[in-house]
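A further point concerns the way the authors explain their paired sequence and structure data. An entry of this sort, consisting of the sequence and the corresponding backbone structure tokens, reads as follows:
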Amino acid sequence: MNRIRKPNRRKRRPARTVLQARLGPKQRKRLILRRIASVLLILAGIGAVGGAGYYAGTRLALPFLSADSRYALRDIVVDGTGRLPRKEIITASGLRVGQNLLGVSLPEVYKAVSSLPYVQRASVRRVLPDRIEIRVEERVPLARVVTKAKRFSGRNLCVDYQGVVFVARKGEVLSLLPELEGVPSDDLEIGNRLATPECRAALRLLGLLQENPSMRNLLDPAVVDVSGRLCLKVVSRDGVGIVLRLDHLERQMRRLQKIYAFSQSRGRKVASVDLTPEQNVPVIFEY
């Protein structure tokens, strides 16, 4: 009697690949190291090809392009100048019409233009085939710096919104700017930033007054003295002496506004006010 064999319903396990096989710690480590080595070899090959291309482009092609008259510099565009003459920037850049455009070092031009004391920011761009564009942002004087240091004798020192000290240009009108007095001589260097807390607070105050016309009408400083300890001594253009703390300048301006409003309602003129105390602010009236 023939027996009918039942089909073997057990599923055959698929053959394991090398990656699916169970590996010991040492084998896994070797596999990982091989993969890392493969990736590094690929990256090294890409770098070698790129380096060869760069070498070929700079060492071999550049001499031929340097002799091509199509890449001669014909136009130097200077943008962003107001008080600073265009000729002065071009002279500082060292660029000259007719030189090969591809031979110009943009980092060197940028460094030369940025080193001008009146330039706050600069950017240089090469535009093929024959133009270079220079864009500058000039320093805007915020205050005059008054000092008795002999090394600055005969120089009109100014400070911009970032606190950088620079020499004002000849003929520039500075009479309307407030004077910054009492800056420590050790902290005063052309091209450096004023770093003392009093100087930084004075710059914040002057910037705040510039940005808020209503506050500027309230306080138009003629002199800001930073020689005090943790305070500013301000003399307004109408002769009022005001002492301020270094912090919470906006809140102190609001308190000063209330004091002025009170004095006007009483028909009196403020001679001096000390805003450093939190309460019982000392106020002296002229009449």
User: Anything to note?
Assistant: Residues 25-66 form the longest helix (42 residues). The mean pLDDT is 85.
